[in-house]
Amino acid sequence: MHISEGVLSGKVLGVGALITIGGTFIGIKNLKFEDYPKVSLLTSAFFVASLIHIPIGPTSTHLVLNGLCGIILGWKSFPCILLALFLQAILFQFGGLTSLGTNTANMAIPAVISYYLFRPFLKKNYFITGFLSGFFSISLSCLSVFLSLYFTGSFFKNFGKAIFFAHLPIAFIEGIITGFILSFLSKTKKEILEG
Amino acid sequence: MKKIIFIFLTFSSLSFCHKVNIFTYKEGDKIFVEGYFSDGKPCKNSLIEIYNEKKEKIVEGKTDENGIFSFNIPDAQKIKIVLIADMGHKTEEEIELEKKIEKRQDLIVEKIISGDEIKKIVEESVEKAINPILKEFERERKKAKITDIIGGIGYIFGILGIFLYFRGRSSEWKK
Predict the structure, then answer these.
(1) Domain range annotation of chain A
(2) What's B42's DSSP letter?
């Protein structure tokens, strides 16, 4: 999910950076005083999630948790994901600093969309809403990673068809984990899910 | 349910890791490049490109099932190895090559094992013996460290704390 340095074309990097700047601006504007602990917590969760590998079958994947950030934070997931990705880039060399904008956009846009799509149903069933937002966010992130590479004009032959199926295991697991986290939070710390 | 899992297993050949590493080593007349993802899985069928110091592509190929690609030591002083894997993963490494030592013909004339030949034999066997250890060492070195992880969490809270501090002083939140 993290696109390395020097892979994307200037155009794609530029567009990604612009989206990220805009999104981060809106996110910070929406940030209220009482949101800070919540945002720090989810940023940390997002930061650490990428280090957790889930081996399934021939491939092994890592958690992303952008669905979780999205459903709880909405637009605030932009600054959250930007900060987490920045630290991942400098501490672990995941992705890169030049591709930071595009990577953030790829993960934060689905988060914001899933906020608008699934947030209204959160109170009805925490697990199912969580599952759907996790599943949806990863699928959309994969699609936008694919599009970033496609518009750069490389790697097209490598996946094409496979992309739509290959992401399924991660999306599925991510969905289940997001669902469990949300239903757990709803029982123990309901105030995180408010506002 | 079983069917769904089966589909997952069949289609999940792409990797969704976040980082690729390469490990290069020399054995005899060949250079071996081994590509692996940050969790240790090999990069299968990934493109490898080798450039010389003039940035000309001299070798191109794909890694095998074990993520290994090998090529004869080229006639260059410095080479750059670039590995390109799925999903926008790319990594590169520069290595310096020593000049090839001596010519074999001199040895044949002498008919006794010269110092150079002994040196070569010893070098080769040491390389063979030491490569697995080097490889393990490289892997360990490139793994995410627990101190970095905890440090990163600290940074997050610190940075957001600074944010909060400056906002706390503005009149905004006093409403």
Answers:
(1) 10-193
(2) B
| Cβ–Cβ contact B6 with A under 8 A | no
Q: B64: distance to nearest CA of chain A, Å?
A: 15
Class of domain B1-100: mainly beta
Judged by DSSP in three states, B45 sits in coil
CA A109 → CA A3, A45, A94, A118, B20, distances in Å? Answer: 16, 18, 19, 14, 25
Chain A residue numbers touching B84 (CB-CB < 8 A): 7
B7 touches A: beta carbon within 8 Å: yes
**pTM, whole model, 2 decimals?**
0.73
- Dump strand ranges (E) for B1-121: 20-27, 30-37, 47-51, 57-62, 68-72, 78-85, 89-96
- Answer whether B12 sits within 8 Å of A56, measured CB to CB: yes
**What is the residue extent of each domain of chain B?**
1-100, 101-143, 148-175
ipTM over 0.85: no
Nearest CB to A58 within list B12, B90, B151 = B12
- Tell me the CATH class for A10-193: mainly alpha
**Cβ count within 10 A of residue A190:** 10
Interface contact B162, partner A, CB < 8 A: no
User: Strand ranges (DSSP E) for chain A?
Assistant: 53-56, 59-62
Question: Within chain B, how many helices (H) and strands (E) appear?
Answer: 4, 7
Q: Which of A23, A192, A169 is nearest to A122 (CA)?
A: A192
- Per-residue pLDDT tens digits of chain B, which is 175 residues long: 444 443 333 333 334 455 777 888 777 778 888 887 766 677 777 788 888 888 888 888 888 887 888 888 887 778 888 887 766 677 888 877 765 544 445 545 555 677 888 888 888 888 888 888 888 787 777 776 788 888 888 998 998 888 888 876 665 555 5
